[in-house]
Amino acid sequence: MSDIEIARAAEIRPIAEIADKLGIPNDALMPYGHTKAKVGLDYINSIQDRPDGKLILVTAITPTPAGEGKTTTSVGLTDGLNKIGKKAMVCLREPSLGPCFGMKGGAAGGGYAQVIPMEDINLHFTGDFHAITSAHSLLSALIDNHIYWGNEAGLDTRRVAWRRVVDMNDRSLRQITSSLGGVANGYPREDGFDITVASEVMAIFCLSKSLEDLQERLSKVVIGYTRDRQPIRADAVNAPGPMTVLLKDALAPNLVQTLEHNPAFIHGGPFANIAHGCNSVIATRTALKLSDYVVTEAGFGADLGAEKFFDIKCRSAGLSPDAVVIVATVRALKMHGGVAKGDLGEENVQAVKDGAVNLKRHIENVKSYGVPVVVAINRFIADTDAEMAAVREATDSLGVKAIDATHWADGGNGTMALAEEAVRLADSGESKFAPLYPSDMPLWDKIETIATKIYRADGISADQKTRNQIKDLQEAGFGNLPVCIAKTQYSFSSDPNNKGAPTGHTLPVREVRLSAGAGFVVAVCGDIMTMPGLPRVPAANSIRINDAGQVEGLF
Prior knowledge:
This protein is α/β, with parallel strands linked by helices and about 550 residues long. The protein contains 19 helices and 25 strands. The strands form 7 sheets. Strands 1, 2, 3, 4, 5, 6, 13, 14, 15, 16, 17 and 18 form a 12-stranded mixed sheet that branches. Strands 20-23-22 form a 3-stranded mixed sheet. Strands 7-10 form a two-stranded parallel ribbon. The longest helix has 21 residues, at about 130-150.
């Protein structure tokens, strides 16, 4: 059966029953139909004096076309935790419409480890992304309106930093000229669109702790610069108030369920490259008050996702993870060992051993944060016992267990052993979490620290223009912010074809971008796409409503 057929065949319980598992009263729910609901912010505020549960992060090895399965593992682990008698829930990001209709597909797990209602989650869901798009667009409109009516703030139209967004893959909008058609339409200028998940509003939304924090962060957004390059913020065009109004309902986290009827928060979804790639702080912190164990995930491999989870999200929100699960597959390790995608079905123990250097480096990196680790081998039918043994041999050398996980086929029953080890680690008190660098370290040194300690580069490079950008941000008072590295997710280096665990490379910093509202500085290393295009044959071509009124082709 396909993922969508499995999801459609599943029994789905009223969302009030799922809320009852967490002790959430009916009057705290804002239902969106019978199977999904938001949990009210007033109720969330009322439980803040409760102790926190244990936080378990799911991350992965460096991504390959063979796939790793972080979301599926996160859902399967949550079901496994409940199978062994623990009160657990999962916190995930919301899918973007762009990839759903493009090439990647949905993001609700797979097989028998899914969150449901899958079709709703992958489409409009509760409208959060539309609210974020609208809030971003309101600021865009207010900027051009401010310029049109006299430009009191002195914004240089050549230095407007705020682009537009839409939640769809559309390469034709990457670079545009706006306000054409005459005097009545404003002052023509270069402009462009990003996809909604790349909006700074999305990053702000996911890092905000409350409505008040949200509005304060929105007021700090730098929308552009004057002719003498002084920053102008969003409050100069009176945007934070009305933007917060548009986001007030969206800020409440969304409650759904897994196939095994365990609770899940799905809320927010920032890019894992230009931003930090994690679900919302509000969802994670609320889950910790409601459950004994909370499973969450970070985007891409651990070098990008876990690093940003630790150094940006945990630093900002005061979170302290208790254990980390690193997801690996035999197929992906074979690709890191030099095997072509078409040959992955053949047993190749040596390639697994060669590719395991990638897994080992991720283990070493995560352990350097002081957090204990277990490896989940997301097992495929074609994986042989000898190949699985090669993975365990590699992790044993680092004192880390590697445990088979068959959640895709077996649901929670396939992750019970993984759940037992995750609980053992989380309850052990071994976690001595600390970020990679102190906040007062200079920006250049922060970038270099990540490059040398996480990517194992020899150092970083930048031209004089970029060095001046970093110097200007440091002198302008932004030096205390964490750094968000934007680079390829397919390698520790900046070369996507450099698999395994490369050394002897240099990280080139092409430019830096300020996300003052979100509270980090983006170091762009290579070409980063913030508005994807559709492939030659997009997924949209196969999506339709069948004669029974059901969605077909979504996933």
